Amino acid sequence: MSTLQKIDIFDFTLQQGVYKRWLPLYYQVFGQLIGTAPVVVVNHALTGNSQVIGQNGWWNDLIGENKTIDAGFYTIIAFNIPGNGFDGQAENLIQNYKEYTAKDIARLFWEGLHSLKIAQLFAVIGGSLGGGIAWEMAFLQPKNIQHLIPVASDWKASDWLIANVLVQDKILNNSENPVYDARLHAMLLYRTPQSLKAKFNRSKNDNQELYQIESWLLHHGQKLENRFALESYKLMNHLLKTIGESTNCGQFLAFAKETSAEIHLISVDSDYFFTADENRETYEILKRVNSKVHYSEIQSIHGHDAFLIEFEQLNQILKNTFTTTKLKTKQA
């Protein structure tokens, strides 16, 4: 298992002009040693962390030895968003969570990569918030990423997403059990009515006191409350609405013309969070000015969480990008 490592970032000024004398950036490296193989950066989602594979690895079905993103061939780097609490530093780092933006996190990730003497990336991939940060990384360094792969995400926060971030923020700041209660609401955004019907179908627990859907929601609220700090949740939720905040449509088109990255948009047809409609619109805009843009759609009843469930489809979508490149390199 990869150990948690740290890079100290000094004299960092946030987008809002707030100066940070020091920020610790924690990360893990999997697969090949840095400097010996193509680098894949994996960005975690809202309540995720850098443990992408191994025990409690949240993308074990996609990444690992002889998997689609093969740890036997690639160097895989995953940074923790500062303040996500995986390093136990949440309360110490976050005095005002609204100071930070997704672009700040992208800048920190690039700072970390430069500290590791990495300038060029084979791929940046991330789901949900991690996909938004991947977009921001590409905006900052449009010629230093070969493959940009945002999954169940988009280059900007939609009005729908911003509205739900506000609801989450109100719960987190006003509830007596903020993390617990906010998670109940969030889980309904990550799934769909069809997904919940297929899973529970109005059944009750053995004691008949609660519907199984109620027990399931309460379990997820308790589970997150036990492992995630309130300040961390406030920050991660806030970051969602800042995706693309400093990039207008004209700048987005300029990026699309300038970038050397091959862009792989992957949406979920039933996503209530980053909707497929928004991704299709992004694809239509991009393909007018960039021929290296691909659009794929995961078919699922499970909504936003399908990027953590429908691994067979996701592997099939990504297989050509990662496996073909690996085979070509070995043959050469």
Automatic annotation (TrEMBL):
<protein>
    <submittedName>
        <fullName>Homoserine O-acetyltransferase</fullName>
    </submittedName>
</protein>
<dbReference type="InterPro" id="IPR000073">
    <property type="entry name" value="AB_hydrolase_1"/>
</dbReference>
<feature type="active site">
    <location>
        <position position="271"/>
    </location>
</feature>
<dbReference type="GO" id="GO:0009086">
    <property type="term" value="P:methionine biosynthetic process"/>
</dbReference>
<feature type="domain" description="AB hydrolase-1">
    <location>
        <begin position="38"/>
        <end position="153"/>
    </location>
</feature>
<dbReference type="GO" id="GO:0009092">
    <property type="term" value="P:homoserine metabolic process"/>
</dbReference>
<dbReference type="Pfam" id="PF00561">
    <property type="entry name" value="Abhydrolase_1"/>
</dbReference>
<feature type="active site">
    <location>
        <position position="304"/>
    </location>
</feature>
<keyword id="KW-0808">Transferase</keyword>
<feature type="active site" description="Nucleophile">
    <location>
        <position position="128"/>
    </location>
</feature>
<dbReference type="GO" id="GO:0004414">
    <property type="term" value="F:homoserine O-acetyltransferase activity"/>
</dbReference>
<dbReference type="InterPro" id="IPR008220">
    <property type="entry name" value="HAT_MetX-like"/>
</dbReference>
<dbReference type="InterPro" id="IPR029058">
    <property type="entry name" value="AB_hydrolase_fold"/>
</dbReference>
